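Entry type: protein chain
Record version: 2
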Amino acid sequence: MNAMQTIAERVTKQRTARGFSQRALSEKLGISRTTLSSIERGEDGVTMGTLLKVMDFLDMTLESKKVVRLPKDGQFPRGGPTLMQIRAMREQGLL
């Protein structure tokens, strides 16, 4: 299972545990129901901002037992930071 599939399952679980339908949660967050559905299916194409908005509302964190390393030169390989690196940067006040 890849990271997006894991996040997708966690979003669905947290949403249902809090008693929200996809429609109710999407309206609360100001996003479309199809966008929320895409997140819950683990599809590509969802913006990082939207994904973090949903996760923040559901009090979800990106936890890992691994140490998240940020590149010293600030250059991320293959187009950008991972979700865990973004979270680490937010925690360090870099974002």
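Comment: The mean pLDDT is 80.
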